[in-house]
Amino acid sequence: MDSSFEAALEYCLSADSSRAGIGTYKEKTLHAVLKRYIEPNDAFQEVAVGSFVADICNENGIIEIQTRDFNNLRKKLDFFLKEHIVTIVFPIPATKWLLWVDPETGETTKQRKSPKTGNPCQAFHELYKIKPYLTHPNLRLRLMLLDMREYRYLNGWSRDKKKGSTRCERIPVALKDELQIDSPAEYRKLIPDTLQGGFTSADFAKAAGLSRHAASTALNVLNFVGAVERAGKKGKSYLYHILT
């Protein structure tokens, strides 16, 4: 494990950091660990910039750690991007272990490894929400693949109370990989290497491990930033080519 990431994880899980139990504090552990890993100096964390507060503001610009709901970033981006380099950090579960929490007793089950694995293409769902900003010259993207434990309350609507349940916490275990995108042209990094020549959304879905709907969203974003272009049809489906 990266030593600086391990130090950030240890700090955020230690008693010295005065953090409470699972699901009982405002700042989630995943967010806190990434913030300390990226910027260990408290003086550059939670910095007022205009009427907003940036997660990090240092010599590299503004860094916003967003675990979901990218649409909530729009007002900040409208203001920050005028004068600052802005990097959005998005964590993606690489391998995930699930633990279920009884909301009444707090009792937690043993962890179970999820059969699902993550990859950078899962960012497209959120990127679509800020699509108009993706070509701004001051915007950067940092995708972080992490192994993590996910705690969920047993409060869902199904008989076993798991379907429709509420996620209460995610604890990172290890940093597996990072992908930095600094310009629209670099969104080509998110196109699977196996896709060559003309390909459809179904081809993209299979190569990227996405649903057909998610693949269509991905190609919508890639087309917007100029990483791919539509080039005819195959039956009822659009054919796409990678732009170089």
| Number of domain modules | 2
Structural classification: alpha+beta
- Amount of beta strand: 25-35%
User: In terms of per-residue confidence, which ranges show pLDDT below 50 for 5 or more consecutive residues?
Assistant: 18-25
Secondary structure tally, helices: 6
How many β-strand runs?
Answer: 9
Biggest beta sheet summary: 7 strands, mixed
Q: In sequence order, what are the helices and strands, one letter per element? A: HHEEEHEEHEEHHEE
Q: What Rg is obtained from the alpha carbons, in whole angstroms?
A: 20 Å
Secondary structure: helix percent: 10-25%
* Mean pLDDT value: 91
Distance between the termini: 35 Å
Fold topology:
Layout (H helix, E strand, L loop, with lengths): L2 H11 L15 H10 L6 E5 L2 E7 L2 E5 L8 H7 L5 E16 L10 E6 L6 H4 L11 E15 L13 E15 L19 H8 L3 H14 L2 E7 L2 E6 L2
Parallel strand pairs: 3-4, 4-6
Antiparallel strand pairs: 1-2, 2-3, 4-5, 6-7, 8-9
What does this entry look like structurally?
The structure is a single chain. The protein has 244 residues and is α+β, with helices and mostly antiparallel strands. The chain folds into two domains: 3-182, no CATH class; 192-244, Winged helix-like DNA-binding domain superfamily/Winged helix DNA-binding domain (Arc Repressor Mutant, subunit A, Orthogonal Bundle), CATH 1.10.10. It is 22% helix and 34% strand. Strands 1, 2, 3, 4, 5, 6 and 7 form a seven-stranded mixed sheet that branches. Strands 8-9 form a two-stranded antiparallel ribbon. β2 (52-58) and β3 (61-65) form a beta hairpin. The two termini are 35 Å apart. The model is unreliable at 18-25 (pLDDT under 50).
